Amino acid sequence: MAFEGLTERLQNAFNGLRKKGKVTESDVRDAMREIRLALLEADVNFDVVKKFVKTVREKAVGSEVLDSLTPAQQIVKIVHDELVNVMGDAAVPLNKSEHIPTIIMMVGLQGAGKTTTAGKLAKRLIQDEKARPLMIAADIYRPAAVDQLVTVGQQVGVPVFEMGTDHDPVDIVRQGLAEAAAKKNDYVIIDTAGRLEIDEQLMQELSNIKELAQPNEILLVVDAMTGQVATQVAEGFNERLDITGVVLTKLDGDTRGGAALSIRSVTGKPIKFVGQGEKLDAIDVFYPDRMADRILG
Ligand code: GDP
């Protein structure tokens, strides 16, 4: 289960405080040491942990907290609020275009869940808005990628524009957009190529697609299981593409959770959705307060 280790360690730190009749500054320091370790072990980015611990400590050692009747409870609330704060406070909705179509470009490393997430988003848009999306298959490098998107399209009842693997991805996107204009699709979801790691050729290709398509959203799909790496990947893609949001996948797995807590602080970009399973309806809006509740257990 996601966050298991982190939840347990945070609860231990709080239980230590609850046992004290009176909580002193030194007790707070001890608890913060435990919380710091818990966050680092959960693979939260080092700078994020440092700032988090400093903020919580400053709020917790005030006399209103320590002299209150329920100091431990108040410290739990301070931690909760700061968890929400680092994850971005409120849910951030999809950017929409004023004129159809709204164009969503999916980017990310191979295996992160881009293609699956494209299908999940399309399905959600159909359910929520009775949308008529078109998906464009612009990953020409992985032979199975086009077929995979076509299959996903069939499963969710969304047409897929594809030209096989012998055309330039920018060309495919250009023709796909023309098709969407002709068919008056209200959303276009572009599935782009991934690689095992960030490389210059991929970034150049994605920049070219971005320039042509002028997407309303560039959603970076990252795998929560990869922890700090997910955060670094987000930083790398954001530097080159100025992404508009992140989808954190595989939160149903045994992830330690660091990426959920780091990405917003490190990139300044919101997590907009989380993937919580392989099925095509396993996608949820990312609510920082609900995630904080889940982390605290
Ligand atoms: P892509 O290479 O980025 O397009 O990745 P895919 O969409 O092909 O996904 C890679 C694998 O991850 C597939 O087996 C998906 O079923 C799986 N996957 C994607 N999202 C999730 C998720 O939220 N949870 C779980 N458990 N698996 C996922």
Automatic annotation (TrEMBL):
Keywords: Cytoplasm, GTP-binding, Hydrolase, Nucleotide-binding, Ribonucleoprotein, RNA-binding, Signal recognition particle. The keyword Transmembrane helix does not apply. Residues 101-297 form the SRP54-type proteins GTP-binding domain. Its EC number is 3.6.5.4. One of its GO terms (molecular function) is GTPase activity. Residues 2-87 form the Signal recognition particle SRP54 helical bundle domain. GO terms for cellular component: signal recognition particle. One of its GO terms (biological process) is SRP-dependent cotranslational protein targeting to membrane. Residues 100-278 form the AAA+ ATPase domain. GTP binds at residues 108-115, 191-195, 249-252. It catalyses: GTP + H2O = GDP + phosphate + H(+). It is found in: Cytoplasm. Belongs to the GTP-binding SRP family. SRP54 subfamily. Involved in targeting and insertion of nascent membrane proteins into the cytoplasmic membrane. Binds to the hydrophobic signal sequence of the ribosome-nascent chain (RNC) as it emerges from the ribosomes. The SRP-RNC complex is then targeted to the cytoplasmic membrane where it interacts with the SRP receptor FtsY. Part of the signal recognition particle protein translocation system, which is composed of SRP and FtsY. Composed of three domains: the N-terminal N domain, which is responsible for interactions with the ribosome, the central G domain, which binds GTP, and the C-terminal M domain, which binds the RNA and the signal sequence of the RNC. This is Signal recognition particle protein. The gene is ffh.
